[in-house]
Amino acid sequence: MVPWLAPDDPFPPVERALGIASGAPGLLAASADLLPSRLLDAYRHGIFPWYSDGQPVLWWSPDPRMILRPAEFKVSPSLKKTLKRVLRDDAWEIRVDDNFAAVMRACASAPRHGQRGTWITADVIDAYSALHRVGDAHSVEAWHDGQRVGGLYGVALGTMFFGESMFASMTDASKIALAALVAHLRRHHVELIDCQQNTAHLASLGGREIARKAFIAHVRTHVRGAPIAWRFDKQVLADWTGGHGAPGAVLPAA
């Protein structure tokens, strides 16, 4: 039985999450609240919320866990060609945290194959925006001709990045934002991006599953690190195109 968490209750150990035979593998707990403090505690323990509007807040820790190692990010020939175009065309920009809530709203309205509606409700936007205001959540945004055409957001703790959602209103714009994020994290020696659950799209970009035990061990170590800088521009994309900019170079702190 999934425990119901009162406001001050701690999360149960992730090993108590429901198994594959349950019909809801990875479901750990439920609660009525999505307080920023609860959300932050969840990520520090390898737990994330995912639920539909009208449901209680459902907390998950699946086994295995989908991850993307920046060193294993796959750049297809067509994406490499796109990134080269972005680098040489002044109409393209990469912005960080230009409007975090706007990125979340765009992700909420993006169509998802096989899904109706969105879990990114007003309450979810409020909770993650609270983390953003204190520097624990960030957006990476692809802009073209002064318009935001793609982006992603996630939670950043120490040298861990927990990816949440992406959107694109222009072909490959979300991949451009992801490539920028991955290159930036490589430069800051971030070894792993949490992708939560397996999708064919993430697998095509180099994502893969690892055991929850290994994932939790990594999280426990890396959320304690000093936060990385969140100031960069589209030149980080040179890592993937054979252009200038050594992958090991760290950009100036904000």
Describe, in plain words, how this protein is organized in 3D.
By secondary structure, the protein is of the alpha+beta class. The chain folds into 2 domains: 4-63, Alpha-Beta Plaits (2-Layer Sandwich), CATH 3.30.70.3550; 66-240, Leucyl/phenylalanyl-tRNA-protein transferase, C-terminal domain (Aminopeptidase), CATH 3.40.630. 29% of the residues lie in helices and 22% in strands. The protein has a 7-stranded mixed β-sheet, sandwiched between helices. A 4-stranded mixed β-sheet has the order 1-2-4-3, with helices on one face. Helix 3 runs antiparallel to helix 4. The radius of gyration is 18 Å and the shape is globular. One of its GO terms (biological process) is protein catabolic process. It is found in: Cytoplasm.
Number of domains: 2
Report the CATH C-level class of the largest domain: Alpha Beta
- Helix coverage percent: 25-40%
Number of strands: 11
GO cellular component, one term: cytoplasm
Subcellular location: Cytoplasm
Pfam families: Leu_Phe_trans (PF03588)
InterPro entries: Acyl_CoA_acyltransferase (IPR016181), Leu/Phe-tRNA_Trfase (IPR004616), Leu/Phe-tRNA_Trfase_C (IPR042203), Leu/Phe-tRNA_Trfase_N (IPR042221)
Please sum up the structure shown.
By secondary structure, the protein is an alpha+beta fold. It has seven helices and eleven strands. Helix 3 runs antiparallel to helix 4 (122-133).
